[in-house]
Amino acid sequence: MRGKFRKISLPRRLIADLMHASAGVPFVSLSRTLDVGALAEARRETLRSPGWAAIFVKAFALLARDEPILRTLYAKWPWPSFYELPKSVAMIAIARVEDGEHCVLPQRIAAPDTLPITEVDALIRQAKEAPIEEVPIFRKIMLVTRLPLPLRRLAWMLGLNFGRQRGNYSGSFAVTSVAAYGGGQLHALSPGPFIVSYGVVEPDQTISVVIRWDHRVTDAALIAKTLTRQEEVLNGEIASEIRGLCPHAETKPVRAVAT
């Protein structure tokens, strides 16, 4: 059957590079249904509530602030070792349409646990709505993605295999979801070490959450405890912060979305 060749766009080339970089990571997954009744009530009381992406970004960063393993990377160079970052760096998958093509680009937010949740939400919204050239991390990523394949591979190797640079290059955790399109459990790939994915809020005020992690860094017991603490943080610190927001004109929140 005769078809036709299509040029690979820069965003699709980025995903291909990301999958290549993620191929060797020994991921393990743990999913759990969390009760978010108190958080859901706080969001209903606030006209301009932050989106779920911002909520999960800040919640995980708060957990990592108290648990260093959640901001620890596996680094290969100069020899295999663990590298503990002084602060969390979130990478949020942002769904966009560029030149008529659906794509996903990562927004980077450093130390989200120290930022107001409204600021985290604003940075995610900017990545969703602003032109690519106005988002610093998008400009950097596109600059690397334009390089020839050998130079791209070298850039990814340098960025992912030195602990200090890896924190700058791919962050300490990622947040992604397909909740905007009806939910479902998403078992995403990234260079790691941690990926948080969430579904839609069900009528009984529960939400399904999946954490994927690099098994070289930690084991399931810690992740199980993390999910328990995550439910507490969502209904505690995050819900309290949202209740304290002044009501504004209602706008549609932005969710993290990936394919």
Enter the CATH topology name: Chloramphenicol Acetyltransferase
Which stretches are poorly predicted, pLDDT < 50 over at least 5 residues?
none
What is the highest CATH level, the class? Alpha Beta
Q: Strands across the major sheet, in which order?
A: 1-8-7-6-4-5
Query: H/E element string?
Result: HEHHEEEEHHHHEEEH
CATH superfamily: Chloramphenicol acetyltransferase-like domain
The CATH architecture term is: 2-Layer Sandwich
Helix content: 40-55%
Q: What's the rounded overall pLDDT mean?
A: 91
Annotation, overall tally of beta strands: 8
Spatial shape: globular
| Rg over CA atoms | 18 Å
Return the domain count: 1
- Oligomer type: single chain
Counted by DSSP, the helix tally is 8
Beginning-to-end CA distance, first to last residue: 28 Å
The largest sheet is: 6 strands, mixed
Q: Approximately how much beta-strand content do the residues carry? A: 15-25%
Describe the 3D structure:
With 259 residues, the protein is α/β, with parallel strands linked by helices. Helices cover 41% and strands 22% of the residues. The protein has a six-stranded mixed sheet, with helices on both faces. Helix 2 packs parallel to helix 8 and helix 3 crosses helix 4. The chain is globular.
